[in-house]
């Protein structure tokens, strides 16, 4: 990014899918000379209190956040985009803020996602669906009977044992990623807009160009190409996002320049982070903001 990294604003801990507990990640940040660290675990606020306490001990400013999964199911894209939501540390002491945030996040995983997936399967493959394959509608209880933390395996078991689908190919037709009933994890964009509009957060579209990363590695993952993101971007603008993650290990210089032009066009703050998950493949301290860029970002937090 052409200047020393002052703040690394996109990182994960063991509260979601990172290798390091919050306290250890903060110690690593101190060792690297970072002055500010964003903790943005996937769809959870767990881990933030420990990170803030460790930040106080290490004299590193912790920016609390959450990486929210936003799901899409469209002819040109089925999958999820991610929205980083940052807020002041005082919000974690506000029970109404925490409860409101967690209640919306819960719709994107766990029981909320199971209910939505069951409804989608019934709309497509139920007795009254467009491609009826089931003798009766699938029930949420059919899935819950196997586990409170349902996976695709539990859906397969329910279809086989409770609805009598004995053919594995037909089961995969119903629940596979290519199924017209497939619903990715995450909340709807309308629910993401509710977070932005109801809660005191600054929302940032995460790694917009990572899906077009030309190299190998984990930064690309299963994200869509930048052309798809550009097509959806106006909807995020309308929802109320205030920033774009420009500096990112999976963004080329060309991508960064393009994203800066988007930020200028829509009057968005520029952010950046390493998306740290581990010590080798996605380490800490490789992307972030200069001190002046961080000050502009911080000024946007309610």
What tags apply to this protein structure?
302 residues, alpha/beta, 2 domains, 7-stranded mixed sheet, single chain, TIM Barrel, 11 helices
Assigned CATH superfamily of the largest domain: Metal-dependent hydrolases
CATH architecture of the largest domain: Alpha-Beta Barrel
Low-confidence stretches: none
Calculate Rg over CA atoms: 20 Å
Fraction of residues in β-strands: 15-25%
* Order of SSEs: EHEHEEHHHHHHEHEHEH
Number of separate domains? 2
Helix/strand/pairing category: alpha/beta
Envelope shape: globular
Number of helices: 11
CATH class of the largest domain: Alpha Beta
**Quick check: average pLDDT?**
94
Write the CATH fold name of the largest domain: TIM Barrel
Largest sheet: 7 strands, mixed
Percent of residues in helices comes to 25-40%
Q: What separation lies between the terminal Cα atoms?
A: 27 Å
Which strand order do you get reading across the main beta sheet? 1-2-3-4-5-6-7
Got a strand count? 7
Can you put this structure into words, describing what you see?
- The protein has about 300 residues and is of the alpha/beta class.
- The protein has 2 domains: about 220 residues, Metal-dependent hydrolases (TIM Barrel, Alpha-Beta Barrel); about 70 residues, no CATH class.
- Helix content is about 40%, strand content about 15%.
- It is built from 11 helices and 7 strands.
- The protein has a 7-stranded mixed sheet.
- A hairpin with a 2-residue loop joins β3 and β4.
- α1 packs parallel to α2 and α8 crosses α9.
- The two termini are about 25 Å apart.
- The mean pLDDT is about 95.
